[in-house]
Amino acid sequence: MNELSVMMRKTLWASLVMSTTLIVGACAAQQPAGADDNLYQALGAAPGIEQIADNFIMEIAYDPRVFDRFADSNVERFREKIIEHFCFIADGPCEYTGDSMVLVHRGMDINSAEFNAVVEDLIDAMDKAGTPISAQNRLLDRLAGLRPQIIEI
Asked: Going by CATH, does the domain composed of 3-150 fall within 1.10.490.10?
């Protein structure tokens, strides 16, 4: 694939992300009474998690280490599910309705370097969203348990 084609795909992906931001952003749910909302709130609740997700998608779009893994993804669905997943992992008012991490990543032969690159992209996304380091570390700690479900040895 030539460089122009790659740039066009990245630009298209970035455009899709931006167009879905306004549509999905209006659908934020309220926190139910009594829920453990500490991490959810520390991430900025629904608006903060949506910003992290949007930044994350942009980081992936411009990361040559992993972009090809996501190039054919349905960006709108990816955004929806990553928001649900982060919200659910953070004890927010969301239910994750996507497939398991094992099923999503089965047969992809993801290696440690690619996994680590995506983690770096997530950290950059959270930095750009202004997420406090303590909240970043807590989210990363919860997500780290998924590593064996994603990397194929």
From this structure: yes
Q: Where exactly are the structural domains of the chain?
A: 3-150
Query: DSSP for 113-132?
Result: HHHHHHHHHHHHHHHHTT--
Alpha-carbon span 3 to 86, nearest angstrom: 33
Contact 67, 60 (CB under 8 A): yes
Count of other CB atoms within 10 angstroms of residue 84: 18
Contacts of 107 (CB under 8 A, 6+ apart): 152
Instruction: Give the span between the Cα atoms of 121 and 48, in whole angstroms.
Output: 16
Residue 9 exposed, middle or buried by CB count within 10 Å (0-12, 13-18, 19+)? middle
Q: What is the pTM of this model?
A: 0.74
Q: Provide the residue-wise pLDDT of the chain in tens; the chain has 153 residues.
A: 555 444 444 444 444 334 333 333 333 334 444 444 499 999 999 999 999 999 999 999 999 999 998 888 899 999 999 999 999 999 999 999 988 787 777 778 888 999 999 999 999 999 999 999 999 999 999 999 888 888 865
Task: Give the angle 33-130-138 at the CA atoms, nearest 5°.
Answer: 55
